[in-house]
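To: structure subgroup
Subject: Chain for Friday's discussion

All,

I'm putting the inputs and outputs inline so they're searchable in the archive.
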Amino acid sequence: MRKKKEIDLVIRRIIAAIVLLLLFIWIGDSLLRVFRKPSSTVVIIDDRQPLTETAQPETSPETLPEESQDESNVKIWDASLEPATLPAGYTTERKTEESVHEGILLWIETQYSGAEIQFGSFEDKNSCYRLKSNELCIQNSALRAMNALAQAYEQETGMTNLMVYSTTELYETEGSLYPDYLPDRSTGFCLDLAFLNEDGTISGISQLNNGWLKENAWRFGFVFSVPQAGYHLRYIGRLHAAVMHEYDLTLEEYLAFLRKYSFSAPFRYTYEEKNMLIYFVPAAAFGSTDIPVPENKNCEISGNDKDGFIVWTAENYE
């Protein structure tokens, strides 16, 4: 009897040991599965299988690094912001990298960085104003505007004392009326005016004595690109001068204002009974820029000397 009890005890111990062993194996296997489970942020990629949804990198044309963008997304005005297809009646005009430094709306902060400009003379000036020197140079469009301004000044004030004191000189020598360094003089669209007195002396123009110019220069396409310099006129064209006058903007403020308006959402302005469209086109990161324009090319384009182009055209261009 005693021997039988000993056998039963041994069997129970063996069974308990087997159960404990199986329990240890199950626990060990469970722990191993936990530690070997792949993380949701680490994916082992089989060349034959696509990435899982959680591992798919989030990329879009807007977030791609600049150097990895396809050239076609950069060349056309701005493929990420503008419609891929031009509306009926529009095409594109290609401008080179250098063209961003050409036009009447350049904002020269420190110095002009474009190609050398060939200026015209004052050979075709009218008799309504004088020149300090016959060697002065000017852009032809600015000359025509100055002729019109001086004629209106003489007719409306009865005065014939306007003088063009300087134009393209970045700064004058010591003793000059206007020794200020004004980098936009290098565009050839600037005129520093003075008064020629009856005794032959020359008086400077300032904000205190330029009342007629301040009120009327915009009518001829001129603005005071440096407002505190009441003598310094800059030609930008009558349309732009009219907008600046109406909205009371400086040239720098006006160019910043236009950056908000794109080809697909242009700035609309009624000028001389025409509905005008004005919009900004950013320059391509490299190479030429294709600018959307009316098919009949009835528009004007100017670089801003920095990073883009400004286009203006009549809305009903046909």
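Points worth raising on Friday:
Helices lie at 2-36, 72-75, 140-157, 211-216, 238-247, 251-258.
The chain is about 25% helix and 20% strand.

D.
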